[in-house]
Design goal:
single chain; about 260 residues; alpha/beta; Rossmann fold; ProC C-terminal domain-like fold; 8-stranded mixed beta sheet; 8 strands; about 15% strand
Length: about 260
């Protein structure tokens, strides 16, 4: 049996994380990398090409920024055969955009950078029925996958694609607070890293709010901090951030379509 060819275009943050994740499980496919300014080769002995020659079959995974998609399509649309599964991780760029230029099957993913550790969850949507080229089966080896209506992709992009940034920004602010209250920078970083590492063990089926309840005790330290968050409208701050990111995804869709 001939191995599936997976072509990753754009070997930046996301493309290199995907290549690393695929390399960790690579058995039945060949990964080809393309970037106009390659800085990082995620795999030993792998070559990053500057340009696509012609892609006759297999999977093309687009990991470029939304601003570069128009240029990519004008340069390469005639170098991609209709057999190729086109897979996109681009925030805000809808399946219907690709359908204007390609007759190919289109798969849209919204991963985050955790893909490099093979712990990813991949929300996806697609414009075909079956598991063409068994690519979903391969993605499923990287973590778990779940199909969503594309209408939900703006908010999914905001809470999952951008999501690590919300937690990491919060962690950075906790480090800053720890420092202001007497810890050395290295100590504060170490403690917050350990804290973040401990969180997965606290995720349970009963939901986040109930677990928070278990940490706090009446008139205790956690309750004092939670009350302060409430006084400062933490819920509003978070809602506004998620809403801004969701709206930006909608704006990108409009900008790309009007371009
Ligand atoms: N980063 C995340 O956490 C994340 C999460 C979910 C989804 N995404 C999506 O993933 C995509 C990539 O994000 P990123 O953070 O990985 O961006 P990035 O680090 O800027 O990587 C994109 C790479 O693609 C290259 N490139 C641009 N046009 C190209 C072309 N025609 N042929 C070959 N290479 C080309 C860029 O080169 P230059 O630098 O020279 O332009 C750059 O190296 C975005 O669409 C984003 O919405 C990202």
């Amino acid at each position: 049996m001939v191995n599936l060819d997976i072509h990753i275009v754009g070997v930046g943050n996301l493309g290199s994380s995907l290549a690393t994740g695929l390399n960790n499980i690579n058995k039945d496919f060949n990964v080809h990398l393309y970037d106009q300014n390659p800085e990082f080769s995620p795999m030993k002995n792998s070559v990053i090409k500057n340009e696509i020659d012609f892609i006759n079959d297999g999977v093309l995974v687009l990991c470029i920024k939304p601003k570069d998609i128009k240029q990519f399509i004008s340069s390469y649309s005639d170098k991609i055969s209709d057999n190729v599964l086109i897979c996109s991780v681009l925030a805000g760029v809808e399946t219907s955009y690709f359908e204007k230029y390609f007759d190919n099957k289109i798969l849209r993913l919204m991963p985050n950078l955790s893909i490099k550790k093979n712990t990813w969850f991949i929300p996806y949507t697609k414009n075909y029925d079956d598991d063409y080229l068994s690519f979903l089966k391969i993605l499923n080896k990287l973590g778990s996958i779940s199909e969503y209506d594309e209408k939900l992709f703006h908010v999914i992009t905001s809470i999952y694609g951008s999501g690590p940034a919300w937690y990491l920004e919060l962690s950075a602010k906790i480090v800053e607070a720890g420092q202001k209250l007497g810890l050395e920078n290295a100590e504060a970083n170490r403690i917050v890293e350990e804290l973040v590492n401990s969180l997965p063990s606290l995720i349970s089926e009963e939901g986040f709010a109930k677990t928070v309840d278990k940490i706090k005790s009446p008139n205790g330290t956690t309750e004092a901090g939670l009350n302060s968050l409430e006084m400062d409208s933490f819920d509003k701050i978070i809602h506004n951030a998620i809403n801004s990111a969701t709206n930006r995804s909608k704006e990108i869709s409009q900008e790309i379509n009007n371009d």
